[in-house]
Each structure stands twice: as C-alpha cells, then as structure tokens.
Amino acid sequence: MEDIKRTGTDKLLHAKQVLAQVCDPEIPVLTIEDLGIIRSVNLLDDETMEVVITPTYSGCPAMGVIEVNIRAALQSAGIQPVKVTTVLSPPWTTDWLSAAGREKLEQFGIAAPLSASLDKKALMGEKAAVHCPLCGSKQTEMLSQFGSTACKALFRCLECREPFDYFKCH
Length: 170
Ligand SMILES: [Zn+2]
Known about the structure:
Elements: H1 2-19, H2 32-35, E1 38-43, E2 49-53, H3 62-76, E3 82-86, H4 99-107, E4 110-111, H5 116-123, E5 140-144, E6 152-157, E7 163-167
Parallel strand pairs: 2-3, 4-7
Antiparallel strand pairs: 1-2, 5-6, 6-7
The structure holds zinc ion.
Zinc ion (ZN) binds next to loops.
C-alpha cells in the first residue's frame, strides 16, 4: 500500500512539474502556472491524471489551445490518460496572475493589469493610470480599448512614444 501511495504522489509531482512548463499560447513568456489557471491536479482512481483549469477569458480562443498543450505536454512526459476539466466558477480574475507572471508581462512589454477600480478609470480614458512597461513613465494614453487581442487594450507612452499593450483587468 505504501509503495502505491508514494507512486501516486510522485506521479502528481511529475505532472505538476510538466504543467509548470506549459506556456500561454498568446503570451509565450507566461506559463499557465503564472496565469493561475490551474485549479488542481488530481490522480483519479483509474490512474487518469485530471487537470482542473479555469479559463482566463471565456471568449479567448487561446483556451482551446491551452487544453491541447496541456494534453500534449503530459502525454509526451509519459503521463496518460489525461482528462482536462474546465471549471467556470469562481471565474478567473487577473488577480490570479502570480507576481512572477506580472513581472514577466512587463518584461515582455505588456503593462500588467491594475486593480478593478483603477482599470475602469484607465479604460474610461483617465490618464496616468497605466504606466509604460518600456520606460516606466506614467505619461500614457489609451489608443484603443482593444489591442492585439480582446484581452488587451492598446496604449501609447507619451514619453518614449512607444505603443504598448495593457493586459485588461478581468
Ligand atoms: Zn515609455
């Protein structure tokens, strides 16, 4: 019994390590762990590895790709069968982004999401809410509520003149 238990724990640990390497298809510097979309990883009685995820944006086409990537990563690590379960409640919020994830976003040139109230102001056109991820200036303006994807808004820095994406609060 003891051996079987340990094997199960090892399998879970292995699965979690593999999952920590799976990247977000839209923002490849972020892993799905950074995004905080993995709710739990469970080894079911029939040895199926169940990965419970909460999608970021329901309208985000990337979610289907994430599921495929999760399956592919686990299977190529020899972990199967795999079951991906989607849980919609509680809904994912940008608060679930890890600190490391927020840092990676900024390094990638995308302004990390603000708190809900500041986000609303920023998208209403209030200046100085979003800082430029490239030079850190607060002199920014919104160009469009929709950036390269629906999840992002397009901003421009008035100081370094560079446009950049802002990851909208959700
Ligand atoms: Zn700038």
